[in-house]
Amino acid sequence: MWIAAAALLTVIALVGAGTTLGYYAQNEWASRQSLPAPTIITAPVPAYQENTEVLMPDVRGLDEAAARQLLIDAGIPAGNVTTTTEPAAGAEGSVFDQSPASGTANPEGVQLVLAAEARMPDIANMNGQQLSVELQKLGAQVEIQQRYQAGATAGNVVASTPATGEALPDEVILVVAEPGSSVYLGNLDAVSSGCSTGAVSLNGKDFQNSLSCTAGSREANKYEWVTKRAADQLTATVGIADDDDADGRAKVDVFADGRLVSSVVAAYGTTVPLNAPISGALRISVVVSEVGGEDTPQAVLGDARVVGSTDAMARIREN
């Protein structure tokens, strides 16, 4: 009997507690519902304080971390800075360009262009000035040196540091072919020469500075000049004079310090170009021999000249 009474009392207690808790929870919810909702006000925060001038620094050449730190130190908020990448000379990841320019007051936004790896372009048949402009656009400082190179087009690049395909550094050297200069062969010191000089007509064309060298009938005749290791090439137009024997033919061999470098045959009524490489030669020899026939012809070297750099030709003129 007493057990049933205890159970009844427990149920009554639980019901009472639940009623009380429900009452308080309802009152708390009602009180919160009666409070007004908070109002959120958004106000722009100025990037720069009023009457304060912050100048954009020059961060080109710095790595990204150093550039960002310098901008912060100058008073430019970090959130104002964005980055892009482009192929450029120099260390990869360094600042290649910036916007705005240094000295700009209170920049609203700063863009840094970071260098991605660039390669030295192919220099073949490239004009030196045009290539220099392209490299400078990539941020490289370009030094142009001139050098005579036989057969190269004046103004074209003949060598570079770095070489084609190598990583592009901050500083580049371009070696550009210079036009060069020349000296007529007849004006050089002759070791042994019986060639006559003057104007000669070959196949209807006049050559004002020509050498007429007699061919040897039994043995070849040899004519020599000192070139002082200064010339790179001997050029001439070779033939038989228009007023000479129409049947005459002569072989012309050119030697540089005893080494055969070119050989042509002079014939009447036609001409043949002579281009003999003589770089580094102390002296050159022209050996003329008869090719058939009974008469002894004269091989004419029309406007024969040695060609080299401007400085080298100045030295070779010194007697």
Structure description:
This protein is α+β, with helices and mostly antiparallel strands and 319 residues long. The chain has 4 helices and 17 strands. The protein has helices at 2-33, 64-74, 128-137, 310-317, and strands at 81-88, 95-99, 110-117, 141-147, 157-161, 171-177, 181-184, 190-192, 196-202, 205-214, 221-226, 233-240, 249-256, 259-267, 271-277, 283-290, 298-308. The protein starts with a helix and ends with a helix. Helix content is 19%, strand content 38%. The chain is rod-shaped. The longest helix has 32 residues, at 2-33. It folds into 3 domains: 64-117, no CATH class; 128-179, Trypsin Inhibitor V, Chain A; 182-317, NPCBM/NEW2 domain (Jelly Rolls).
Overall form: rod-shaped
CATH class of the largest domain: Mainly Beta
CATH architecture of the largest domain: Sandwich
What class do helices, strands and sheet pairing give?
alpha+beta
State the distance separating the first and last CA atoms: 149 Å
Helical proportion, percent range: 10-25%
Compute the gyration radius: what is it?
45 Å
Mean pLDDT: 86
Full CATH superfamily name of the largest domain: NPCBM/NEW2 domain
Supply the number of structural domains. Answer: 3
- The number of E-state strands comes to 17
Number of helices: 4
CATH topology of the largest domain: Jelly Rolls
Runs with pLDDT <50, length 5+? Answer: 1-25
Please provide the ordered H/E string of secondary-structure elements.
Answer: HHEEEHEEEEEEEEEEEEEEH
Biggest sheet record: 6 strands, antiparallel
**Strand-residue proportion:** 35-45%
